[in-house]
Amino acid sequence: MILPIVAYGDPVLKKKAKAIEADYPNLSELIENMFETMYNAHGVGLAAPQIGLSIRLFLVDASPFAEDEDLTVEEQQSLKDFKKVFINPVITDEAGEEWAFNEGCLSIPDVREDVFRKERITIEYLDENLNAHTQTFDGLAARVIQHEYDHIEGVLFTDKLSSLKKRLIKGKLANISKGKIKMDYRMRFPLMKKGR
């Protein structure tokens, strides 16, 4: 089932999410719905707060990046089947140089900006079967994970921009929160007038 994606301005996007208990109801169905929602919106990642749930869950499928001709063959191969579910994740280490990449977000449509992030992370998490993992990721895989991880920490990529960049996109962000945008996927807007 395709769920509406919560738009910029909704308080759930600024809250630190709570851990998921092992008996969380209908977890596999929720994960399935989140993948369907993400694919419908042509995203490469989706966090639970983006569908209005303040829980520590996100999923990624970075395989669309595998076709990026600017990447090395090794990078393309590593992203080709990069589809994962992260439950109660904790980033335990960030390393390497910070590098810029033009990021966007399904909750903040039509806004893209360069964001600096570390090139390598180590993360502990549970998968969709609640099996524990500790893995290290680098490059675009690390970046997609960091972006989604920020969501469960109540941080948006726009929070990482300079004050000048924030001022430049202020009007766009206000329009998004009021629903004054056209999207080809379902969204839920916090400041839309009822009856519109």
From TrEMBL:
<dbReference type="InterPro" id="IPR036821">
    <property type="entry name" value="Peptide_deformylase_sf"/>
</dbReference>
<dbReference type="Pfam" id="PF01327">
    <property type="entry name" value="Pep_deformylase"/>
</dbReference>
<feature type="active site">
    <location>
        <position position="148"/>
    </location>
</feature>
<dbReference type="GO" id="GO:0042586">
    <property type="term" value="F:peptide deformylase activity"/>
</dbReference>
<keyword id="KW-0408">Iron</keyword>
<keyword id="KW-0479">Metal-binding</keyword>
<feature type="binding site">
    <location>
        <position position="151"/>
    </location>
    <ligand>
        <name>Fe cation</name>
    </ligand>
</feature>
<keyword id="KW-0378">Hydrolase</keyword>
<dbReference type="GO" id="GO:0046872">
    <property type="term" value="F:metal ion binding"/>
</dbReference>
<keyword id="KW-0648">Protein biosynthesis</keyword>
<dbReference type="InterPro" id="IPR023635">
    <property type="entry name" value="Peptide_deformylase"/>
</dbReference>
<feature type="binding site">
    <location>
        <position position="147"/>
    </location>
    <ligand>
        <name>Fe cation</name>
    </ligand>
</feature>
<comment type="similarity">
    <text>Belongs to the polypeptide deformylase family.</text>
</comment>
<comment type="function">
    <text>Removes the formyl group from the N-terminal Met of newly synthesized proteins. Requires at least a dipeptide for an efficient rate of reaction. N-terminal L-methionine is a prerequisite for activity but the enzyme has broad specificity at other positions.</text>
</comment>
<dbReference type="GO" id="GO:0006412">
    <property type="term" value="P:translation"/>
</dbReference>
<feature type="binding site">
    <location>
        <position position="105"/>
    </location>
    <ligand>
        <name>Fe cation</name>
    </ligand>
</feature>
<protein>
    <recommendedName>
        <fullName>Peptide deformylase</fullName>
        <ecNumber>3.5.1.88</ecNumber>
    </recommendedName>
</protein>
